[in-house]
Design goal:
With about 190 residues, the chain is an alpha+beta fold. It is built from six helices and four strands; from the N terminus they run αααααββαββ. Strand 1 (about 125-130) and strand 2 form a beta hairpin. Helix 1 packs parallel to helix 3 and helix 3 runs antiparallel to helix 4. The radius of gyration is 24 Å and the shape is elongated.
Length: about 190
């Protein structure tokens, strides 16, 4: 057996490769063990045919995806049926993009999944995106309401005002103002 010199950068590269392999295997084991991804979908992240620098960039991509899934599981108590498509969205994004902690993922969430948080939360801003249809006939409407009026004089005439008294009777009433309305088929001027 040939002796390997541990002088210079060789030993550091060996440790880096061992550490990378271990970390990638841990991430892959989690995603496959939780049935959130397949080995095929993770192939580009675990490939050893790419250079060492690219392999290093794959670790934060896997880590960010894991952070999102763990946050949704622990904090929001979401189940597998929600986590699986979200994992696929993250994997697809990171397959094509560099690691980016500031990227905002827009993950589809049904109102039934977050319904249990409504009674205890008192948000300052609510935003709802509603999509219907597909392809060129798709219509996307966005409503955003806020507890802050877009301009001060709205407080006096109640224009654009909504109240949550019908939802939370007996609790201190909050006033909501329509802050944003967008529709993909209608162009406001």
């Amino acid at each position: 057996m040939e002796a390997v010199s541990l002088t210079g950068i060789t030993s550091v590269q060996m440790l880096l490769k061992i550490g990378l392999d271990k970390m990638k295997k841990d991430y892959v084991s989690f995603f496959i063990g939780q049935e959130l991804a397949t080995l095929t979908s993770l192939d580009c992240f675990i490939s050893t045919s790419v250079d060492l620098q690219e392999q290093v960039h794959c670790v934060p991509k896997l880590h960010h995806t894991l952070e999102i899934m763990v946050s949704c599981t622990v904090l929001l108590q979401f189940k597998h049926e929600s986590l699986f498509p979200w994992t696929q969205i993250c994997i697809k994004y990171y397959r094509e993009n560099p690691p980016d902690e500031k990227h905002v993922f827009q993950l589809p969430v049904s109102s039934a999944l977050v319904k249990k948080f409504y009674p205890d939360s008192h948000p300052e801003v609510w935003k709802v995106d509603i999509s219907s249809g597909h392809g060129p006939k798709e219509v996307k409407t966005t409503w955003q309401v806020s507890t802050n009026p877009p301009v001060e004089h709205m407080m006096s005439n109640n224009t654009g005002l909504l109240s949550d008294s019908t939802v939370n009777a007996g609790i201190e009433e909050k006033m909501y103002f329509i802050a944003v309305v967008k529709c993909s088929q209608v162009h406001f001027r």
